[in-house]
Amino acid sequence: MARRFIRRRYLVAIAVGTLVALATNVLLLFGEWMTVAPIGTDLLLMVAQTVWLLVMLSSLVLIPVPLLFHLASTRVFHRELKAWLIGCGMIILTTLVMFSVVNPRSMGVKMRMSKLQVIAQRSAPLIDAIERYEEAKGALPENLRQLIPDYLSAIPETGMGASPLFKYNDFSAPSRASQRTSHGGNSWILHVNVPDGLSQDDAFLYYPNQRYEVAGPGLYLGEVEGWAYQELEEDL
After folding, report:
1. Where is average pLDDT lowest: 45-49, 128-132, 156-160?
2. Which of 42, 194, 192, 30 is nearest to 112 (CA)?
3. pTM value?
4. ∠10-50-166 over CA atoms, to 5°?
5. Which of 214, 210, 218, 211 is nearest to 235 (CA)?
6. Among 71-80, 178-187, 208-217, which stretch is predicted with the lowest mean pLDDT?
7. Which of 41, 126, 132, 176 has most Cβ atoms within 10 angstroms of its Cβ?
């Protein structure tokens, strides 16, 4: 009877540890999805990343606790500590297995790339309006509002709740030559901030000359319908 009770305790520890790890990682995936959802926000991703870090750090820190008390503990107390050790170990093990099979970061990038394709399609009228304005006026618009009403009836939005607006940079002035050079020689660009939780926002960039191999500082993640997705190390 006693052995059955002890065995049940260990099974409960395994189940609890596994469920905690699964719930934490699922929350992380949901937070990644919410950053690009139409009604999304990056707040949930920040919360999910914080919870994930706390759970992982707590598990790593608390795993040695049973070992510290092992010599001084009674047999009953030792069993309690062993169950705690098993639970913490299962959190780490389940998380490692999930990251080897379904990496939340990798899945997050895939979800973002799918949404970024929609954003690129939404930008087509805006890009066309800027090009027609420049052709007609011989100069770039100072801001996107100057495109209304002659070239656009309204500025399109990205459709991403956490970052709904297209941002426009005019590098045509001589004083902005260094920025023009660092952005592939483009006199103007469009970009959308892509929230990344506790890390600095990523950027979705549009270069008219499509020279993304010389995009600004940061890790280049790929192209989507003439736009480039990039992890930034500094603000644009």
Report:
1. 45-49
2. 194
3. 0.70
4. 140
5. 218
6. 71-80
7. 126
Residue 54 φ/ψ region, left for φ over 0, alpha for ψ in the -120 to 50 degree band, beta for the rest? alpha
Q: Can you list the pairs that 205-208 forms with residues at least 24 positions away whose Cβ atoms lie under 8 Å?
A: 205/229, 205/230, 206/120, 206/123, 206/127, 207/183, 208/127, 208/131
Phi, psi (rounded to 5 degrees) for 216: -55, 180
| Amino acid identity for residue 81 in this structure | L
Report CA Rg, the chain.
25
Cα of 117 vs its chain's centroid, Å: 16
- Of 106-115, 150-159, 214-223, minimum mean pLDDT range: 214-223
pLDDT tens-digit profile of 11-55?
Answer: 665 666 677 777 777 777 777 777 777 877 777 777 777 877 777
Q: Return the structure tokens found at 138.
A: 């011989």
The model's pLDDT over 80-92, given as tens digits with 9 standing for 90+, comes to: 566 656 656 666 6
Token code pair at residue 59: 């598990």
Q: Which two tokens stand for residue 56?
A: 């992982």
Contacts of 70 (CB under 8 A, 6+ apart): 78, 81
Angle, in degrees to the nearest 10, between helices 104-122 and 124-137: 50
Question: What residue has token string 């990251």?
Answer: 99
- What CA–CA distances, in Å, run from 219 to 36, 228, 231? 20, 11, 5
Spatial strand order in the sheet of 227-232: 167-170, 188-194, 202-206, 227-232, 218-224
